[in-house]
Amino acid sequence: MTFLLTPIVTAPAPAPDASDTELTAFLWSLINEDFLTEAGWNAERRVLTPVGHPTMGGRSCPVPNCQSPVRGKKLCSTCYTRHRTSGMSQEEFVKVPRVSRHLHLGTGTCRVAGCERPWNNSGKEPVCRGHRWQMIKHGGALEQFLADPAVKGLPGLGDCSVLACNRQAISEFGTRLCHPHGKPLPALRRQPGFDEERWLRTAPSASYGIEVSFRGLPELVVAQLLFGLQHRCHRGARTEIGNFRALIDKTIRPSLAQRLEDVPDPAANSVALTLLNRTRIYALRAVKTPEGEYAKDEWDLGSVLAIMSGAR
Ligand SMILES: [Zn+2]
Ligand SMILES: [Zn+2]
Ligand SMILES: [Zn+2]
After folding, report:
1. Which helix (H) or strand (E) holds 226?
2. Three-state DSSP state, 225
3. Which end of the chain is more exposed for a tag (fewer CB within 10 A), N or C?
């Protein structure tokens, strides 16, 4: 699979009956390394984090524990409002961590030496679930617990079983899930006709901030999306990355489509529809050869030639 993650510059233009693998390799040959680096693409984790990207990213809010994107102002919109009523200076305000039970908090590794599991409860006790129970039995403060040589690290539980998810599992028994995916499962299981297998394949990534997960999508869809994004960026089109994530999580992923052409149009969501259409048109145009059906259309021919020569 590694060849799919690495751009192949010499791939020949695909034939009209090219397989998905050939189309994928061809699209990757058009995706350049600079774009991937600027967009914060992690090929191993299949995650895009375009921090500071001129057309996709923007910055994360500087307030600790808040990773919402900043738009125009120095803080995210929530922290901007909180700051206005706080009576604090900007310097003081950005030192105080954001606390909210609705907040998606970043995960960290359990503080017990050698423990591979993530902590997950608001950072008040930065220990994993297993060590949290041990700590309650142990009694006393966190520092005393951590200093006790009898407290040993626990082995990691691997990735969350939701295909799209980029987090580590925290649940030790049953289906191994991260905190955000483990929480709604009991209620979902009580719903009549709930298909857990399908849910694990199609549930939203629960990514937040400016992270977009491509995990679990077919290879061709990943290449089409990344190529489409690259082309948007080259044209200077602004992509609100939260909208792009929503398009993947709410429309593309649940469709189980093997290529973007087969993704049904999202109903009643014009932002997602526009994003999907533009991205898929770019991806489709890229694989049309000059001999193909699009050759009659001057704009398309020009566009294809430009893409193939690397000019855009
Ligand atoms: Zn914020
Ligand atoms: Zn631990
Ligand atoms: Zn998860």
Report:
1. helix 219-234
2. helix
3. N
Instruction: Spell out where the chain has E strands.
Output: 41-42, 47-48, 59-60, 69-70, 108-109, 118-119, 212-213
In the reported structure, the alpha carbon of residue 274 is separated from the centroid of ligand 1 by a whole-number distance in angstroms of: 28
**Cα separation of the two ends of the chain:** 27
Residues of the chain with confidence (pLDDT) below 70: 1-12, 58, 67, 71-72, 100-107, 120-124, 289-312
* Nearest ligand (C-alpha, residue 70): 1
pLDDT tens, position by position, 218-228 = 999 999 999 99
Predicted pLDDT of residue 10: 46
List Cβ neighbours of 174 (8 Å cut-off, separation of 6 or more): none
Helix (H, G, I), strand (E, B) or coil at 15: coil
244: Cβ contacts below 8 Å, ≥ 6 apart? 56, 212, 229, 275
Q: What is the pLDDT of residues 152-163, one digit of tens each?
A: 999 999 999 999
69 CA from centroid of ligand 1 (Å): 7
The residue to which tokens 């919402």 are assigned: 68
Q: 204 C-alpha to center of ligand 3: Å?
A: 9
Per-chain residues with Cβ under 5 A from ion ligand 3 = 160, 162, 165, 167, 178, 181
